[in-house]
Write a structure and sequence with these properties.
alpha/beta; UDP-n-acetylglucosamine1-carboxyvinyl-transferase, Chain; four-stranded mixed β-sheet; 9 helices; 14 strands; elongated
């Protein structure tokens, strides 16, 4: 394995970075685009393997679809294909075949899907057939399962004959990602009623509208780390929104306590740090709260 040593002769950092689009947002918008009756433009799509795979497989006419390592892609495609006519096999890498999908498949089969396991019960690969005429429109799911299962069901919900009602049982552990999905669906004209532990989606049509994918706040966090370790910094990150759908945007508040200012502009943010002493003083204040 090769190793690299990166040296910075100055601890004063200044630069401008254009970040790739968020994978979480990109994959949701791609699925909605496929569910929409008309296509629309998507700008600043993520260049992640998951999103590239998602786009390719949604546009494929092959009977065998391989999601490789892309977990989000596999789960979203399972829901999408379950609403389509015909039969297709959805598979993945050997590691993907070890990742359970039973909770999602069980829920989909209840609401009219016709999905079979081709190898081990509860795991990929799957044979996804045309939906059955008999179905229910209400399901119950453990609230602590992957938000990707819940999001996949939410997004196909308005396209089902009677819509979908989901009862989430227990503590909801991935609320930010569920809220992200609902907000993106709302942008495309689909409303969701969230009452306590119940999500209600009536039959509706997605309205095609061009969409600009926000940059990835997870990627932005690395530049906050660089700024924090510098003597002074002025780093502009392009593609970020002030009112973000991403939970990782909370790093702005966290780093404000460490002496890093975040100045929002038009689809960008500039991280400012003036002196290292301010950062160290703030860090010492925060650490002191955890001392026994």
């Amino acid at each position: 394995m090769k190793s690299f040593r990166v040296l910075c002769p100055s601890k004063d950092i200044k630069g401008e970075i254009t970040l790739s689009g968020s994978k979480s947002i990109s994959n949701r918008v791609l699925l909605i685009q496929a569910l929409c009756e008309e296509s629309f433009d998507i700008y600043n799509l993520s260049d992640s393997d998951d999103s590239i795979s998602m786009q390719q497989l949604l546009n494929s006419n092959e009977d065998l679809l391989d999601a490789h390592h892309a977990g989000t892609t596999f789960r979203f495609l399972t829901a999408y294909l379950s609403t389509r006519e015909g039969s297709q096999i959805l598979t993945g890498s050997e590691r993907m075949k070890q990742r359970p999908v039973k909770a999602l498949v069980d829920a989909l089969n209840i609401i009219g899907a016709n999905i079979e396991y081709l190898e081990n019960e509860g795991y990929p690969p799957l044979k996804i057939n045309s939906p059955t005429p008999s179905h229910k429109s209400e399901i119950s799911l453990p609230a602590n399962i992957s938000s990707q299962y819940i999001s996949a069901l939410l997004m196909i919900g308005p396209t089902l004959p009677d819509g979908l009602i989901m009862n989430l049982e227990g503590d909801i552990v991935s609320r930010p990602y569920i809220e992200m999905t609902i907000n993106i669906m709302s942008y495309f004209g689909v409303s969701t009623i969230w009452e306590g532990q119940k999500l209600i989606i009536r039959p509706q049509k997605y309205i095609p509208k061009s969409y600009h994918v926000e940059a990835d706040w997870s990627a932005a966090s690395y530049f906050y780390t660089i700024a924090g370790l510098s003597h002074s910094a002025e780093i502009t990150l392009k593609g970020l929104h002030k009112n973000s759908l991403q939970g990782d945007a909370n790093i702005v508040k966290i780093c404000a306590e460490l002496g890093l200012d975040s100045i929002f502009g038009d689809y960008q943010i500039t991280i400012l740090k003036k002196i290292i002493l301010l950062f160290l003083s703030s860090l010492n204040t925060i650490l002191s709260r955890f001392r026994i």
